[in-house]
Structures are given as structure tokens and as C-alpha cells.
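Hello,

Following up on my earlier ticket. Below are the two sequence lines again, exactly as submitted.
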Amino acid sequence: GENVEQHPSTLSVQEGDSAVIKCTYSDSASNYFPWYKQELGKGPQLIIDIRSNVGEKKDQRIAVTLNKTAKHFSLHITETQPEDSAVYFCAASGGETDSWGKLQFGAGTQVVVTP
Amino acid sequence: GAGVSQSPSNKVTEKGKDVELRCDPISGHTALYWYRQSLGQGLEFLIYFQGNSAPDKSGLPSDRFSAERTGGSVSTLTIQRTQQEDSAVYLCASSLAGGQYEQYFGPGTRLTVT
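Thanks for your patience. The regenerated structure is below:
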């Protein structure tokens, strides 16, 4: 089945700097890649997603890029703010054995934005 | 509108006891998911319900775990004879339909087995 690896596990950035989180996936048939943000004590929330027919997607300060050949995708956060501090999870679905859109999550990245 | 709700928010139980965790999905969402999140870990898929179809139970870690979804709405996750390794946050999510739709997560139930 699908395996998703996420790096780094922790990321500390100064407010205003950019943050980049990278994920790799194993199943070349996967075609849907969402990113979820989890604040302390809350459930994860979708912040952006990308499908395999596009290479990049932006939404204000966040963007996701996808490299299907290399089987990796990345989350970019620009002009980071303290409220960006959270755990971020990447995920993938649509692989060979996926019959219903089952998400395989990465292990998460703890992002800390220091003022 | 109302999001996904879960109850209880916290549950402390003794090893060997049974527990029931409840999930109320967003009204009109046909798909419902349960995940387990151990301390500092990612989300481990447990079970998926979609409409009247047979659920995908492939993520349930043992036969002590079971789940029901009554009337296509409320779901209950039951853990029998709890073990210390069952301690985790149990997250429920729902989506408009099965497939690659946005999943809306509840706040989770933190289960502690002593």
C-alpha cells in the first residue's frame, strides 16, 4: 500500500520567514494530496490540496507543489505569522489498491513561529 | 453551521474495561471516518463508513475494536477490554461523500487507560 514520509518532524522559523515541509509517497498511482493543519487540542483542518493534473497551487500565503516524477510534494508558507504555529500533516490517496479515497497520512511536522 | 462533535472529550478508564466513543457527523455527510492519533504521531486510519455500503474495517487493530453507524448518522467506536496501548486521541471525521472530498474532523476524544 501507500507509504508517505514527511520531513522535517519539527521546524522553527522566525516570524516573517518562509517555511517548507516536504513529503514523499511510494505509490505512483496516487492522485490526490491534501495538507491538514492541527492546532493544539483541535482536530486537523484542510488548508490546501492538489491533484495530480497540476504542478502547483496557491492560496494567499500557502502553496503546494507536486513533482509526480520524483513522487514528492511540498507545502510552502510565506511571511509566517505566530498563528501558523501548529502541526501540519501531508496525505496521499488514489493509489493502486485504494478503492475509495483512503488517505495515508505523513507523521506530521511541528511548526513553531517565533516572534 | 455545526461541525463534527465527539463525546466524551476525555475518558479515563481502567485496564480491562470497555469504552464507547461517540461521533456526530455534519448533517448530510454520507461518509464517516475514525482515526487514532497516539502522542506525537500521525493519524492512523481505523474504519470508514459510506452510506449503506459495508464499512472498510481494515484499520481496526484487533477484534477488541468495533464501530457502528446507526441510521447513516451517529457513529460509536467501542473498545472492549481496554489495554494501556489503547491510550490515544480518537478522531472522527465526516465528508460530503466517499472519495477524495475534504474531511472535517471533530476535536477528538482523549482516552487514557490506567
